[in-house]
Design goal:
Layout (H helix, E strand, L loop, with lengths): L11 H6 L1 H4 L5 H10 L1 E5 L5 H11 L3 E6 L23 H12 L4 E6 L7 H5 L4 E4 L4 H14 L3 E7 L2 E7 L7 H4 L12 H4 L5 H18 L8 E6 L4 E6 L21 H4 L16 H5 L3 H9 L5 E4 L3 H6 L6 E2 L18 E4 L4 H10 L1
Helix pairs in contact: 4-5, 4-10
């Protein structure tokens, strides 16, 4: 990936630091210099981004870019090992940069505090050799894939959910891209997020380490990368499986006659409807018309108003914390339990983020 004549020399300290690499024939001095010259971009400093960034920095990847715009939350610490308890409330980028600088001051950490979008992805990717995808939503996954294909950058892919993980390398010169395997995104709401379904805290460490391994192999040009291979990991059974993925000649992005030649609106592509030329008034949507703030709910509770507070989260979430007096009917059970709500004409529905409660309100209407 790097021109040999341009490879940077190692300092005496780096020779000592990377001594266990230098004695490996697959790495050696030349390979370690390739690592030092490499420029990797990590999308996300969360569950997957944590082990990826830590191991790439430890391995001596010379320039490590990180994209994120979130802050560290207590709920992150169960799996996002690059952050610590003192970092709660701090930006993830600042926290990650501090940790990486402490781990290996020889590595240049470049932070990009922004939301990756169709407007900035290509310009951002241009400065790096490859991209490591640590995202957790479908619009950004398709965005990363298409931007990698259009810019000619390999996409080191990983994803996690509960006890299961996936990893592959997409968008290489001769290999398939993410769209070759998943031409269309799943219907909105069909696949729950980690925030809704949970994730074993150790799982992103396993998958992120696989991604870091694939990234180092790409830099060294060593071994057999996961190009055309889709690795599945089941932590409960401690079992790996592998699927073959072939390049689709009809793929709209990397195929023989691509129809996607520039980045598109990925929110819309993944199910967020486009704005109509003559949009219906907000009141036509029961969610928009009847949205209540937490302050309004608190006031009604304090006044002892007569209303039903319906919690549509899962039972395990309800057991962790609940609003006193709320009634639990998980969203998936609501269609078969509507009779329990007969005669109640004043209902406030809540969940964690508003997605499930919005679906419940539309169903109730």
């Amino acid at each position: 990936m790097t021109v040999a004549a341009a490879l940077p020399a190692l300092t005496n300290d780096e020779v000592v630091r990377y001594s266990r690499h230098l004695i490996m024939p697959e790495v050696g001095m030349d390979g370690q210099q390739k690592l030092k010259a490499a420029r990797a971009l990590c999308i996300g400093a969360g569950g997957l981004g944590s082990p990826v960034a830590l191991y790439l920095a430890a391995a001596g990847v010379g320039t490590l870019g990180i994209v994120d715009f979130d802050a560290v939350d207590f709920s992150n610490l169960q799996r996002q090992i690059i952050h610590g308890t003192p970092d709660v409330g701090r930006s993830k980028l600042a926290s990650a940069k501090s940790r990486l600088n402490a781990l290996n001051p020889e590595v240049e950490v470049v932070t990009h505090e922004l939301a990756l979008s169709s407007a900035n992805a290509l310009a951002l990717f241009a400065d790096y050799d490859f991209v490591v995808d640590g995202t957790d939503n479908f619009p950004t996954r398709y965005l990363v894939n298409d931007a990698c294909v259009l810019s000619g950058k390999p996409n080191v892919y990983g994803s996690i959910f509960r006890f299961e993980g996936q990893a592959s390398v997409f968008a290489t010169a001769d290999g398939p891209c993410y769209r070759c395997m998943f031409p269309e995104p799943p219907p909105p709401g069909l696949v729950p997020s980690c925030a809704e379904g949970g994730v074993l805290g150790i799982l992103p460490g396993v998958v992120g380490t696989l991604q870091a391994t694939e990234a180092v192999k790409l830099i060294l040009g060593a071994g057999e990368p996961l190009v055309g291979r889709f690795l599945l990991f089941d932590a409960l059974k401690m079992r790996f499986r592998e699927l073959t993925v072939r390049k689709d000649p009809d793929c709209p992005v990397c195929g023989e006659h691509p129809t996607v030649t520039e980045l598109i609106d990925y929110e819309q592509f993944c199910g967020v409807p486009a704005v109509e030329a003559e949009p219906a008034p907000a009141a036509a949507d029961p969610v928009a018309a009847g949205a209540a703030t937490v302050e309004e709910l608190k006031s009604r509770i304090d006044r002892n108003d007569a209303f039903l507070l319906l919690d549509v989260r899962e039972t395990r979430e309800f057991e962790i914390c609940r609003i006193p007096g709320s009634v639990l009917i998980p969203l998936g059970d609501l269609p078969s339990r509507l009779s329990e709500l007969e005669g109640r004409d004043d209902i406030i529905v809540h969940c964690k983020s508003g997605v499930r409660s919005g679906k419940a309100v539309r169903l109730l209407h």
